[in-house]
């Protein structure tokens, strides 16, 4: 999920929250059942978004199953809000065989029909077909590079990029690195992986640390980038 700048927040479904430093009022924090520490502004939409921000977003991921999970979720988001997809995360986990790329790669037209009847996920035939195609690509990348992780992390030299954004409005929609990743994925016939989605994937799995400089998670995620990890 990408906390895009103001000009793109509406299209990405991430309205601004709190002040530019991402500090929520005490009543809002209390209503969400969380503490009022400064966070990225987009996190304040719901308690689930806060948990995602605090536990998942930006933490370096090098496990192929989790990387495939985020590839499925990010490509499913296209044209929708991240909150919509996050609310359906567990339904996606069930529908897509625990995000096992080998199993998803074997999905047939009958499986697509099953997914189209699943009210728990986004029932878009093109996106569902792309998810199956992307699973097959993930396996090809694993064979070529040793792992899906090795392929993705090669775009940042195996070291997370550390941004220094002060406000949500400063964060770009995409970057040259994301554009290069998108171009290469599309060259390999991946679906729904334009530059904005590629950057969202990079942000989500920690190829880039886009937590704001005022966000309490920035330093924690930066430390996590110094070693292979999945959560912090």
TrEMBL record:
Zn(2+) binds at residues 40, 53, 211, 215. InterPro entries: Adenine_glyco, DNA_glycosylase. One of its GO terms (molecular function) is DNA-3-methyladenine glycosylase activity. Residues 1-20 are annotated as: Disordered. It holds the Pfam family Adenine_glyco. GO terms for biological process: base-excision repair. The keyword NADP does not apply. The keyword Hydrolase applies. Keywords: Glycosidase, Hydrolase, Metal-binding, Zinc. It is an enzyme of class 3 (hydrolase). Its EC number is 3.2.2.20. It comes from the Bacteria. This is DNA-3-methyladenine glycosylase. It comes from uncultured Thermomicrobiales bacterium.
């Amino acid at each position: 999920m990408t906390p895009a700048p103001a000009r793109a927040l509406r299209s990405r479904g991430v309205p601004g929250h709190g002040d530019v430093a991402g500090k929520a009022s005490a009543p809002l924090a209390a209503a969400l059942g969380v503490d009022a520490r400064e966070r990225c502004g987009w996190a304040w939409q719901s308690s689930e978004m806060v948990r995602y921000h605090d536990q998942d977003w930006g933490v370096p991921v090098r496990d192929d199953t989790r990387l495939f999970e985020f590839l499925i979720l990010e490509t499913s988001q296209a044209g929708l809000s991240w909150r919509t997809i996050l609310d359906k995360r567990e339904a996606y986990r069930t529908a897509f065989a625990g995000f096992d790329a080998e199993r998803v790669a074997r999905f047939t037209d009958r499986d697509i029909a099953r997914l189209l009847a699943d009210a728990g996920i986004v029932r878009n035939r093109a996106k569902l077909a792309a998810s199956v195609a992307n699973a097959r690509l993930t396996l090809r990348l694993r064979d070529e590079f040793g792992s899906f992780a090795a392929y993705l992390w090669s775009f940042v030299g195996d070291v997370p990029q550390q941004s220094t954004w002060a406000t949500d409005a400063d964060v770009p929609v995409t970057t040259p690195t994301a554009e290069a990743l998108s171009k290469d994925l599309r060259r390999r016939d991946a679906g729904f992986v334009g530059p904005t989605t590629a950057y969202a994937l990079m942000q989500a799995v920690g190829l880039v640390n886009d937590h704001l400089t005022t966000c309490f998670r920035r330093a924690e995620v930066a430390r996590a980038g110094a070693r292979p990890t999945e959560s912090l």
